[in-house]
Structures are given as structure tokens and as C-alpha cells.
From TrEMBL:
PANTHER family: CELL DIVISION CONTROL PROTEIN 25, GUANINE NUCLEOTIDE EXCHANGE FACTOR. Signal peptide: none annotated. This is Ras-GEF domain-containing protein. The lineage of its organism: Eukaryota, Metazoa, Ecdysozoa, Arthropoda, Hexapoda. It comes from Photinus pyralis. Residues 1-110 form the Ras-GEF domain. It comes from the Eukaryota.
Length: 110
């Protein structure tokens, strides 16, 4: 994000794209934290993992990554009891997506 802020005058669409991705990840975190009970939060996390999977299948990698960034935000990631209610198949999907995101962040692969 910092790189694109320096050149936002010459490439305003990239800055807008990054801002939109950030808004998606904030929306994801807000949707999870809106409810008070762990079970409802876990259901929302499962739905968002399914949405990330569908984005990935449609080759919409940026939206998939934005959803995962929202789930990896500190406010959501700290909800250990809530993550305990998430079904095993959803948590397995989440771990796979987490590994994929780690691969994309690895500078040695660029």
C-alpha cells in the first residue's frame, strides 16, 4: 500500500483498488464482531470462508485475499472460543487459504 500511495497521482485507480480491498477486509471483521454469541460468530466465519472459496474458484484472488485479511485481523483472530465452534471442514479450508496467502507474501517467490 505504501508503494502505491507515493504514485497515487500517476495511478489513481490502483490506490482506489487498494482502498476498496481494505474496506472489504474491514467489513468482514465488522460482520463477524457484530454478534455477541460465539456460535453465531462461528457461523458467520464459516460463511465468509465459503465466500472466499467461491472467489478463489472464480479466480477473483484479490477479493479472496481481502476476505482472508479480514478474518486474520487481530480482533477476529483472537476469538479463540469462536474459532473452536467453526466446523472442521471450514477450518481446514481456512488453513489452506492461509498457506496460499503466506506463499503470495513470500518475497523469495517474486
Amino acid at each position: 500500500v505504501i508503494i502505491w500511495k507515493q504514485t497515487s497521482k500517476s495511478a489513481p485507480n490502483i490506490g482506489a483498488f487498494e482502498a476498496f480491498s481494505h474496506r472489504i477486509s474491514c467489513l468482514v471483521a465488522t460482520e463477524v464482531l457484530r454478534d455477541d454469541t460465539e456460535k453465531i460468530r462461528a457461523r458467520m466465519i464459516s460463511r465468509l470462508i465459503n465466500a472466499a472459496e467461491k472467489c478463489h474458484k472464480l479466480s477473483n484472488f484479490q477479493s479472496c485475499r481481502s476476505i482472508l485479511c479480514g478474518l486474520q485481523s487481530p480482533a477476529v483472530y483472537r476469538l479463540h472460543r469462536t474459532w473452536g465452534y467453526v466446523r472442521k471442514r471450514h477450518s481446514t479450508k481456512y488453513q489452506v487459504f492461509e498457506c496460499i496467502c503466506r506463499l503470495y507474501r513470500d518475497p523469495r517467490l517474486s
